[in-house]
Design goal:
mainly alpha; 407 residues; Serine Threonine Protein Phosphatase 5, Tetratricopeptide repeat; globular; single chain; 23 helices
């Protein structure tokens, strides 16, 4: 309408339209729109190109984003630090950290000052690769450029150190962060708590949790989840339940991870009736159970030989609009085999294929073991060969089952 009335749309108009298309997820349409307006002689600025580059990076089209950087240069529009940051962030997220570092060198070479976002993206990329020498060099560059790391930068470093089981260094990094005037946030504490739980030191994680009050930080759902999972793994289910109940008093709504963790802990401690009550309560008042939650209950029911109840639960998944995965079928097939109901197990195996689910080595081994223990060794032998001919990796467990049966 603007064009038909003889008006000339400006850069803001064109950029707004491109941004709208990108926000809607129609990045390709935004690119086509760019090509059309440039062909008509319209000039765009760094904000216009930044909008497109950002959209392309978000959908993983880094190569096309590079093309647009070149087009900017052709249009005599110089990329600024924001556009370089978009590219560096996109490259790092796709694992091209060396290429991102090359762009960083280009920024410095052009006399553009890297900012906190530039350094944080690169540090995140190198941390994910475990390249600590490069991380140290970037931290030194930040000091030289008088760019102070923020809480987000420190959290990335602490997270990487915890995941690499360098917990002492993670603590030192947290102390350094405080010395340099940065206040730890809920992410900092959650990260350190996760690190301790990774070491199965849930007591130290709890001490950190109790320090939230000192720092006037409010624990979030993930703070509770980390500790609940830690307690459950340490078979301290009662302490996990106390925390679970405490969440309700602090007006925090447990999510499906919380419920699944507690249900799993209850099942593994033999308190299946309590787990079933909690599972039923989710349906009535709580987050919708996912496939993982159902699988936990299926596994528990099969282990206590309540196969018929497990089948009812399995069918309930379909009624609730959930699609069982390979693990769901494996649990039931193994349960049937252990109960010597091998024909029903074979029917489930056929159903998997009908639903385009690819059986894995666990599926085959359960069936081969069930067939052998039912005296149907020839059928087990046929299934073993079908597994081999179908390209499924045959592991030592498969051989051991058959060797034992033949012996």
């Amino acid at each position: 309408m603007v064009l038909k009335r003889g008006y000339q749309p400006n850069t803001v108009t064109l950029t707004t339209l491109m941004r709208g298309l990108c926000v809607k997820g129609e990045v390709r349409k935004a690119v086509d729109f760019h090509d059309n307006v440039v062909a008509q002689g319209f000039l765009l600025d760094e904000v216009s190109y930044g909008t497109l580059i950002n959209g392309l990076c978000k959908i993983g089209q880094i190569r096309d984003a590079f093309v647009f950087m070149q087009k900017m240069e052709e249009q005599m529009v110089r990329p600024n630090v924001v556009i370089y940051n978009m590219m560096i962030d996109g490259l790092c997220k796709d694992g091209f950290v060396t290429e991102a570092c090359g762009l960083y060198s280009e920024i410095v070479g052009r006399g553009i000052s890297p900012d906190i976002f530039t350094y944080t993206c690169l540090i995140h990329g190198f941390c994910s690769l475990g390249q600590w020498r490069e991380v140290t060099q970037l931290l030194c560059d930040m000091v030289d450029e008088k760019v102070n790391p923020n809480v987000y930068t420190y959290n990335i470093l602490i997270d990487a150190l915890c995941k690499n089981r360098m917990l002492r260094k993670a603590h030192d990094m947290c102390n350094l962060m405080i010395e340099r005037g940065q206040q730890p946030d809920v992410v900092t504490f959650n990260t350190l708590m996760s690190g301790y739980c990774l070491y199965n030191d849930v007591d130290e994680a709890r001490k950190l949790f109790d320090r939230f009050v000192e720092w006037e930080i409010v624990p979030d759902v993930w703070s509770y989840n980390i500790l609940i999972i830690g307690y459950c793994k340490s078979k301290r289910i009662d302490e996990a339940l106390i925390l679970f109940n405490k969440m309700h008093y602090t007006n925090l709504v447990p999510n499906i991870v919380t419920y699944s963790s507690v249900i799993d802990g209850l099942c593994k401690s033999g308190r299946i009736s309590y787990a079933w009550q909690l599972f039923s309560a989710i349906h009535d008042d709580g987050p919708s159970p996912n496939v993982i939650t159902y699988n936990i209950m299926l596994d528990a029911l099969c282990k206590i030989q309540h196969i018929d109840n497990a089948i009812k639960l399995f069918n309930l998944m379909f009624e609730r609009g959930l699609t069982p995965n390979v693990l769901s079928y494996n649990i039931l097939i193994n349960g049937y085999c252990k109960s010597k109901r091998i024909d029903e197990a074979m029917n489930l195996f056929k159903e998997m294929r009908h639903r385009n689910l690819v059986p894995d080595s666990v599926t085959y081994n359960s069936l081969i073991d069930g067939l052998c223990k039912s005296g149907r060794v020839s059928h087990a032998w046929e299934l073993f060969y079908a597994m081999h001919d179908g390209g499924m990796p045959v592991n030592v467990i498969s051989y051991n089952i058959l060797l034992d049966a033949f012996s």
